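quick one if you have a minute, typing this from the bus. below you get a single protein, a line of residues and a line of whole numbers that encode the local backbone shape. could you go over both lines and see whether the tokens make sense for that sequence. anything you notice is useful, everything is just below.
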Amino acid sequence: MAPASNARRITTNTLQAMKREGEKIAMLTAYDYSLARLVDGAGVDVILVGDSASNVMAGNETTVPITLEQMIYHASGVVRAAQRALVVVDLPFGTYQGDSRTALESSIRIMKESGAHAVKLEGGAEVGESVERILTAGIPVMGHLGLTPQSIYKFGTYTVRAREKDEAQKLLDDAKHLEQAGCFAIVLEKIPATLAKQVSALLSVPTIGIGAGPDCDGQVLVLHDMLGITQDFSPRFLRRYLNLEKDIQSAIAQYVSDIRDSEFPTEQESY
């Protein structure tokens, strides 16, 4: 059942209370008003305006090309639609790495120009200074560890991260560092389920898994993937709840056929 339109807004405190009470957090991406309205109305707790918009909305091979201005554009529509969910916006590649001042300026632009509620960035101890500086402006920050898509050219592959002992220990250390720096939650992407369980138990802030097993405090998927709008991405962790690619193409083909055969519009559909 969809929540009432006057349902109380989810906040970072709500998410931390959900972790304490053992209530799982539901998170999905959205990039426009129309779909964000449906996501919000279905009861999703957190809407991520992900830099995955670079892939599913713009058709880029990676998340790297999307700009700050484009992220603000997508976020603005989502914020106008979301009555209940916490709206988190990805800081795109090049807007926070290596320069905490730029990270702060980028985050302020997102918050002021889109009306979003929080930002998300990728990385561990190396972005700790940026996290702390963003927080000085009162902007909540979500972390992201494991497979970090903005670093794909560094990794060279989308395979599972932190299988080896040294990388697993670094991820544990980074997770604790991000918590101590002030992150209100951390996304764990494509890491062994046993490690994700360990991280989730270690932290007092929620973990949100994507390809990280069932023991995270919540889960996130890309909306277009789970609805089956996109079909060229099929990792093990993706569950498709619909096959909209087939349904949408079928509907459009029928529309074209009706026009060709002069069956649309009918007299009842005319003025």
Residues 5 and 83 are 7 Å apart (CA to CA). Residues 12-240 form a domain with the TIM Barrel fold (CATH 3.20.20.60). The radius of gyration is 20 Å. The longest strand covers residues 141-146.
